[in-house]
Amino acid sequence: MRKISIILLLTILSSIYVFAYNDHRGHNLDSLERAVARWVPDAIDLASTEELVNLNRAFRDLMLGYSALNSEKCVFYARKALSISEPRGWEEANADAYRYLGQCFWSSEQFDSSMVYYRKALAAVERMAGDAISPTNPEGYSEKEVDDTRSALYGAIGNLYSIMDSIPQAMNWYRKAGAIFDKYGWNQSNAILYYNIGETWVEQGSLRKA
């Protein structure tokens, strides 16, 4: 039950806002892989910004789709997405790919490596909040886009600390995520977050807190 609730929380946190991309888990992964296969390096070099945005999004769809199925493919497509977004400073895409790299390493119990990528994702979020330019909006990222990306990352870091039995740290990051959910009235996300916190305290034997 604990594992299921954490996966569910990550699912919700990864797609709160309408800016989130399509979720291809469990379907269309083969066809999506065939669609991106034509994008060899020479084709990428000649692609328009719109085409690169769509290709980056497709790589992240594959990254997400394989995150619970095949960690090697998850890492592969995360790095393919980053090969487009990193040199162009597309920080929302960078933060997303770094976060799923962190999740892939966490799944293989490489917790230190997982935290390295979560920290890289945090840095990308702070650049979003600064002067980073969105590829789809020359005015940059909106406060809501930044907060959406930030809250997903806060929840993921909280889950990692919870798995590592660093409960005070986990609760600190959960509080950060919850504050953003409260800000925008994202009640479904808050409900799952509180459920996850309750389960954490049950496992710690603190039934009153749970």
Structure commentary:
- It is a single chain.
- This protein has ten helices and no strands.
- With 210 residues, it is mainly alpha-helical.
- The protein folds into two domains: 85 residues; 118 residues, Tetratricopeptide repeat domain (Serine Threonine Protein Phosphatase 5, Tetratricopeptide repeat).
- Helix 2 runs antiparallel to helix 4, helix 4 packs antiparallel against helix 5 and helix 6 packs antiparallel against helix 7.
- It starts with a helix and ends in a 7-residue tail after the last helix.
- The N terminus is likely disordered.
Give the secondary structure arrangement, pairings included.
Elements: H1 2-13, H2 29-37, H3 41-46, H4 49-66, H5 71-88, H6 91-107, H7 111-129, H8 143-163, H9 167-184, H10 187-203
Secondary-structure-derived class = mainly alpha
What global shape is seen? globular
The radius of gyration is 17 Å
In CATH, what is the homologous superfamily of the largest domain?
Tetratricopeptide repeat domain
Strand residues, percent: under 5%
Report the CATH topology name of the largest domain: Serine Threonine Protein Phosphatase 5, Tetratricopeptide repeat
Domain tally:
2
Number of separate helices: 10
CATH top level class name of the largest domain: Mainly Alpha
Largest sheet: none
Task: State the gist of this model.
With 210 residues, this protein is mostly helical. It has helices at 2-13, 29-37, 41-46, 49-66, 71-88, 91-107, 111-129, 143-163, 167-184, 187-203.
Structure characteristics:
single chain, 210 residues, mainly alpha, Serine Threonine Protein Phosphatase 5, Tetratricopeptide repeat, 2 domains, 10 helices, 0% strand, disordered N terminus
